[in-house]
Amino acid sequence: MTIKAVVLDIGSVLEVVDDGLFPEPFERRHGLVPGAVLASSRLFPGDPGIGEMTWDEVRRHWQVHLDLTEAQTDELAADYWTWYRGKLDEPLYGWFAAKRGPFKTGIVSNSGPGAREAERRFRFEASERCRAPSGVLKRGG
User: Fold this and answer.
1) Which of 54, 62, 70, 91 has most Cβ atoms within 10 angstroms of its Cβ?
2) 39 Cβ partners below 8 Å, 6+ apart?
């Protein structure tokens, strides 16, 4: 079998996440019961990961179900994106970028609402033939 393409996922592959960043620190800072954020998220009326909720709806749900102020909701959202984006796995990204010549390459993501905007710092935007700084081809390989 000949390998013709290399495709990697963004979340927990090219981005390494630290589960200690969310949601426990927010819950501690605001006196919430441990697990409150995740329990609230289980009550979402739809699945944000498949487009059944917008980011604004997710934020509003957290605000209402956790009895948060607008500022606290902003803080929770900031903590969420800090956790969700993680850190770029530079060695893996470099390895992947080096595959660009001999192989077709692609990056996939099943991210929920707001993720593309939050991940822009890594230049993972999914536009036709968009290249990241190191030359990784985004789509259309």
Assistant:
1) 62
2) none
Residue found under tokens 């259309």? 140
For residue 113, the enclosing domain spans 1-17+87-141
Residues of the chain with pLDDT under 50: 126-141
Name the pTM for this structure: 0.71
- Phi/psi for 50 (5° steps) reads -120, 20
Q: Examine the domain organization and report whether 26 and 80 are in the same domain.
A: yes
Assess whether 10 and 24 both reside in one domain.
no
E strand intervals along the chain: 5-9, 15-16, 87-88, 104-108
What is the tens place of the pLDDT at every residue in 43-80?
999 998 888 999 999 999 999 999 999 999 999 999 99
